[in-house]
Amino acid sequence: xxxxxxxxxxxxxxxxxxxxxxxxxxxxxxxxxxxxxxxxxxxxxxxxxxxxxxxxxxxxxxxxxxxxxxxxxxxxxxxxxxxxxxxxxxxxxxxxxxxxxxxxxxxxxxxxxxxxxxxxxxxxxxxxxxxxxxxxxxxxxxxxxxxxxxxxxxxxxxxxxxxxxxxxxxxxxxxxxxxxxxxxxxxxxxxxxxxxxxxxxxxxxxxxxxxxxxxxxxxxxxxxxxxxxxxxxxxx
Length: 236
Prior knowledge:
Strand 14 (221-225) and strand 15 form a beta hairpin. The mean pLDDT is 93. By secondary structure, this protein is of the alpha+beta class. Helices cover 15% and strands 36% of the residues. It folds into two domains: 3-65, no CATH class; 73-234, no CATH class. The protein contains four helices and 15 strands. The strands form four sheets. Strands 8-9-10-11-12 form a five-stranded antiparallel beta sheet, with helices on one face. Strands 3-6-7-13 form a four-stranded antiparallel beta sheet.
């Protein structure tokens, strides 16, 4: 199927010189699209780039295309006024280093209507690098953490103060098949998405959960500053 690729450029001169462009979107050419549908698709993509600061002319965008938009990615994560760097590299479960810092971001999912966080799912192995995202927060909060696995099933447990959480996951070659949580023995109703549902999850051995559910794993509250591209977590 043929398609048209749209870009934004800051000036006619830049366009003629093929310089300084921002990719907007691709629109399939089928002859079956309504004019308004095509316009809305292009306008929504353009508006999102303006909200993300990639196109600096947001004042030209009609309000109707901005009202439901959120900054796509929050690159700063703070916990109790200290930036989380995800930089621990101690891996007691294998000979390879950790890749936790690859997942230091928070993104907005229009499908979930929420900002989302990546978590590891307790997968530990001695034949590749892995992230230990949950452990990063547990240690920052002064807690203890452990994980064990057998065949394709893994159990993570962490304690912060007088509270203990357990996460159990089942994996296959296709990724996470099951992921369940408990706090002090009571089940937590936490839904998750996989990389097949949202590429921002980034790995088959990770999961994406809403910011609100992420807070339930550590008893945190949160604030978001879209203008600063920052999410701040707080432990009372």
